[in-house]
Predict the structure of Helix-turn-helix domain-containing protein.
Amino acid sequence: MTTNGAPSAGPTFYDVQEVAAMLKMSRMTVYRAISTGELRAVRVRGRWLVPAQVIETLVESAVAGATADLRGGA
């Protein structure tokens, strides 16, 4: 769902394999990030799912940090 209540075009959750592919890391690294709390996820019937919003926020944070670095600020 978007903030106005309309359904979004993308998925709501990603599985570990999809997250690993998006972030170009191994599945084990994603599992470790989930277990340490670095990456929020929910467990449904034994399967870890990462909310799409978590990935979107991660990307936005990285872009904001990179932009600040380019400007010479934090």
Summary: The chain has a mean pLDDT of 88. The longest strand covers residues 47-51. Residues 13-71 form a domain with the Multidrug-efflux Transporter Regulator; Chain: A; Domain 2 fold (CATH 1.10.1660). The first helix runs from residue 16 to 23.
